[in-house]
From TrEMBL:
<feature type="binding site">
    <location>
        <position position="33"/>
    </location>
    <ligand>
        <name>AMP</name>
    </ligand>
</feature>
<feature type="domain" description="Adenylate kinase active site lid">
    <location>
        <begin position="129"/>
        <end position="165"/>
    </location>
</feature>
<feature type="binding site">
    <location>
        <position position="155"/>
    </location>
    <ligand>
        <name>Zn(2+)</name>
    </ligand>
</feature>
<comment type="similarity">
    <text>Belongs to the adenylate kinase family.</text>
</comment>
<feature type="binding site">
    <location>
        <position position="152"/>
    </location>
    <ligand>
        <name>Zn(2+)</name>
    </ligand>
</feature>
<keyword id="KW-0808">Transferase</keyword>
<keyword id="KW-0862">Zinc</keyword>
<feature type="binding site">
    <location>
        <position position="163"/>
    </location>
    <ligand>
        <name>AMP</name>
    </ligand>
</feature>
<dbReference type="InterPro" id="IPR000850">
    <property type="entry name" value="Adenylat/UMP-CMP_kin"/>
</dbReference>
<comment type="function">
    <text>Catalyzes the reversible transfer of the terminal phosphate group between ATP and AMP. Plays an important role in cellular energy homeostasis and in adenine nucleotide metabolism.</text>
</comment>
<dbReference type="InterPro" id="IPR033690">
    <property type="entry name" value="Adenylat_kinase_CS"/>
</dbReference>
<dbReference type="GO" id="GO:0044209">
    <property type="term" value="P:AMP salvage"/>
</dbReference>
<dbReference type="GO" id="GO:0005737">
    <property type="term" value="C:cytoplasm"/>
</dbReference>
<keyword id="KW-0547">Nucleotide-binding</keyword>
<dbReference type="Pfam" id="PF05191">
    <property type="entry name" value="ADK_lid"/>
</dbReference>
<keyword id="KW-0418">Kinase</keyword>
<dbReference type="GO" id="GO:0008270">
    <property type="term" value="F:zinc ion binding"/>
</dbReference>
Amino acid sequence: MSLNLILLGLPGAGKGTQAQFIVDKYHVPHISTGDMFREAISNGTPLGLKAKGFTDNGNLVPDEVTNGIVKERLDKDDTKPGFLLDGYPRTLDQADALSNMTDELSKPLSAVINIDVDPKLLTERLSGRFICKKCGATYHKLYHMPKVPGTCDVCGSHEFYQREDDKPEAVKNRLKVNVKMNTPLISYYQDRNLLFNVDGSKGIDDVWKNVDNILSSL
């Protein structure tokens, strides 16, 4: 039986790491929205060219084009053992479209894994990064401080800065937008008995153990 999955989670929840573990163990392709667009555009498919027309002008690609590109991708041979969707669906309309296309392709969803982490913890995780002004070495207030406080391990400089989008206020806003987007999807898949919540505040290995237990029980 194929393993057809969606991965949900806020920025910084560790989706990328868990996605790689799933791909390595279950041999399903990791399909992210960005990769799909790039592939369709570089292959010059009719939908890819349509998408390019929007992205080149800095516009959002409309749902009908996005949905079409997703369907084309899910219809490829490498999805026979299953697939792992990341970054799609983003809206309830897209979730409905996905439901229709998985029915048409006879590839129904097996599960939706939601890596759940408190936004406060994610703010700490995401806003802890700071960078050496001189050489660009990256540090983190929680996970990777310089060996000598205030001195870059690489070049010895004492000047550091924080990128605008790593500052706490920017991070909080980004999380707020994502919470607003994810909440209806979580309810949607909960109502369809497809949702599995995993506590993403634990260590990477513990999170993976929980994800793996869910997937091996399907």
